[in-house]
Specification:
heterodimer; A: alpha/beta; 13 strands; globular; B: 288 residues; mainly alpha; 67% helix
Chain lengths: 342, 288
């Protein structure tokens, strides 16, 4: 396989589901017994994308937008209704087992470890399932045990682990066979802040040092901002945005905001044209910065020259706000839909 | 099996030397079986109740047959009292020896946990079958042997002397076991299509209880019902191994039953493959 060819290639991927429609009311319930009306729901509609080796992609969408349906087609669990997908030259749903050797999967809500077994026994089972050669297993196992601080956990049965500990073990379990691609579904869900940070640091390291391509689905935009160079937003089954996270911020910028704390006197009006009052509270003001009316340098110089500023912070627009705006607009901003590999 | 905490850094997996001797492809399934065996050990109470239940049922059925036969003017052609007692004892023991957990796949489909098994490079069928075998090994040690030992002493049952009976059992038991597993598997896969499968399972239990021949041997059913019973897989699960082992059926008839068992195993095997593929096309994993 060519280095420069995409590792994952999806073309016109579509999946429809037939769902039963239930009639309402008591009479309707009886009618349901004898006739079932079906309705077709298109969970994923003509989705195309390429993912290259080493990318860290955030795959984002609201509940029911088609995220997990897409992931299930990429992992070979689900067969698409139309379209085609190749993962490392394998069509996953045609050869689920061959595809499985190439991928690792972590579902935040479920564990792939065996509930009643000590962690190390689970690892040993996985070693057999993936037929990992001894030397490779030993190397991966040592590395992961060290990086994820697993030593004290290995002899414990999985049911005795805390959520954060379990997630670390699950992550190790998904990487023991040295997969090319790692699918992560909500890997930080339910974790406390420190555990979240640690988890993110580990994922970053896995992506950078091991060169594992990572596809992350999450509702936590902070995960995306911290980790993903590229973001794909799916809305109502279609890709609403696919491009670098940076570009998303740049193009859909809602303005940066300044949070200014004044010394003892909070001015009625800050007379700088590029700044517009958003909110005031005690000694603080939140001001929206309009880049068209002056550079940040000019604005800050003026602030410090004309006012008694005690403290100042600049708030970058948050990806979360942008993504929310895109959901609200529907799949409209097609301008950003062309795949870009930054 | 457990190492001291100080050795925790060591790589796991050297614990099962026998398993290590198997070819890599088979090793994983053996491990699943062993793991499943281990799991059973946790349920001590279940174990004692299981032995007690087995003996209780044998007692009930042998007493029942004795009472029925006492009121008959002449015993039926198929079994004399000694024959029916032996049949009742061994049918129950065969049944215990085939205990299978038929709900775990249903649970996995319902909870969506089956997705995690499907992203592993192994056959789901093979994985479930090996887990099932692990359970069965456990039942052999903990239930079949004690129940058999007590039965030989307490009820008028004797193990057959002829090697032919044992040879027939050695073929008919695994085939019966496999047929039962596949019937359970097919019914379990229905959960992909229907949210509520309880009524299917109830139907299966009903058919099994009546037609597997574990309680009333097939011989005692009316002639008009026999074609139906013979065209269902159930009698090949319990009745066939029991009848061959006790010598109730021998010679060409025994051979014919074994061939039918084989045919059923092949047919059900194909059905399992087809249904699994269909399920994969249909699959809606619950809970995202």
């Amino acid at each position: 396989m060519n280095e420069h060819e995409p590792l994952i290639r999806a073309e016109g991927l579509t999946r429809t589901f037939r769902v039963e429609e239930s009639l309402e009311g008591l009479l309707g319930s009886f009618k349901n017994l004898f006739s079932t009306r079906h309705r077709l729901i298109t969970a994923v509609n003509n989705v195309s994308f390429d993912i290259h080796r080493g990318e860290f992609v955030g795959y984002v969408g609201e509940n029911g937008a088609g995220k997990s349906t897409t992931i299930k087609m990429l992992t070979g669990i689900l067969t698409p209704t139309a379209g085609r997908v190749e993962v490392a030259d394998i069509v996953p749903y045609e050869d689920r087992a061959a595809n499985a050797f190439n991928i690792g999967v972590v579902f935040g809500q479920r564990t792939q470890l065996w509930w009643d077994l000590p962690v190390r026994d689970s690892f040993d089972l996985l070693r057999s399932i993936y037929r990992v050669p001894d030397d490779l297993f030993t190397r991966n196992y040592r590395e992961l045990a060290e990086a994820l601080h697993l030593e004290p956990l290995l002899t414990l049965p999985v049911r005795k682990l805390s959520l954060g500990q379990r997630m670390r073990c699950d992550l190790a379990a998904a990487l023991l066979h040295g997969p090319k691609i790692l699918f992560l579904d909500e890997p930080t869900i339910g974790l406390d802040l420190i555990a979240k940070d640690k988890m993110r640091a580990m994922l970053r390291r896995i992506n950078q040092t091991r060169g594992v391509t990572i596809i992350l689905t999450t509702h936590d935009m902070d995960d995306i901002e911290a980790l993903c160079g590229r973001i794909m937003i799916i809305d109502k089954g279609s890709i609403a945005y696919d491009g670098s996270t940076e570009r998303l911020k740049r193009e859909h910028v809602r303005h940066k905001a300044l949070e200014v704390e004044f010394h003892d006197y909070n001015p009625e009006v800050v007379a700088i044209p590029a700044l517009k009052l958003l909110r005031r509270e005690g000694n603080k003001q939140w001001l929206r910065y309009d880049p068209k009316a002056g550079t940040m340098h000019e604005v800050i110089s003026a602030l410090f020259r004309d006012y008694c500023v005690k403290d100042l912070s600049i708030h970058e627009p948050k990806v979360e706000d942008i993504v929310k705006a895109i959901y609200e607009q529907g799949a409209a901003p097609k301008a950003g839909a062309a795949p870009v590999h930054a | 099996m457990r190492d001291a905490a100080g050795e925790a850094a060591q790589v796991p997996g050297v614990a099962w030397p026998l398993v290590g001797a198997l070819p890599p492809g088979a090793r994983v399934y053996a491990k699943f079986a062993i793991r499943s065996f281990q799991k059973q050990l946790a349920y001590k109470f279940e174990y004692f109740v299981g032995v007690f239940n087995g003996l209780l049922f044998i007692f009930i059925f042998t007493s029942l047959w004795r009472a029925i036969y006492a009121n008959l003017e002449s015993p039926p052609a198929a079994f004399d009292l000694e024959g029916i007692t032996a049949f009742a004892v061994f049918a129950m023991i065969v049944r215990i020896s085939m205990t299978q957990d038929d709900m775990s796949t249903v649970g996995k489909i319902r909870s969506g946990a089956i997705a995690l098994d499907m992203v592993k490079p192994m056959s789901y069928f093979g994985m479930m079958l090996s887990e099932c075998l692990g359970q069965t090994m456990f039942h052999w040690f903990t239930r079949v042997i004690p129940v058999l030992a007590v039965s030989l002493l307490a009820f008028d049952a004797a193990l057959p002397r002829a090697w032919e009976n044992w040879a027939l059992l050695a073929i008919a038991w695994p085939l019966g076991y496999l047929i039962m597993f596949m019937v359970n598997y097919l019914f379990a896969l229905l959960a992909f299509w229907f949210i509520e499968t309880f009524s299917f399972h109830l139907m299966k239990y009903g058919l099994f209880t009546i037609f597997a021949g574990g309680i009333v041997p097939v011989d005692f059913f009316p002639e008009w019902l026999k074609p139906l019973i013979e065209s269902l897989p159930f009698m090949y699960i319990l009745y066939t191994p029991t009848a061959l082992f006790t010598g109730h059926i021998a010679g060409a008839d025994a051979l014919r039953l074994i061939l039918l068992q084989g045919a059923w195993a092949v047919a059900l095997g194909m059905a399992c493959t087809v249904m699994w593929r269909a399920a994969q096309r249909k699959l809606v994993v619950q809970g995202g």
